[in-house]
Amino acid sequence: MTEIADKLKLIPLTVNEDVDTHDIQSAYQSDLLSCVICAAGDKSIWVTLINNINIVAVAKLLDIPVIIITEGALPDEATIDRARLEGISVYSSPKGNYQIAGELWELGITE
User: Fold this and answer.
1) Which among 47, 64, 78, 102 could bridge 59 via Cys, Cβ 3.0 to 4.6 Å?
2) 19 secondary structure, DSSP code
């Protein structure tokens, strides 16, 4: 994930020390928590504009180790603290969902 974050120029907000041990093969983009719960795969990257603490709960529920928050949105400290506690890496990007998804595709994250 460190290589992906570097290539996408992501801003790390909290990075789990195990982030590079996950075999990430897929990504899911949605701003609706219910859609993520129904369709996102485990060990995937979640791309979203949502920046509240609920993203951590959903990521933990689904074993999603990485969240990329787009459009420059930043979570509050409570969200960052909870992500750190749960072992979820959270990154931010000024780019939009579509652009991040396209760049992930170009890097071979095609599922």
Assistant:
1) 64
2) G
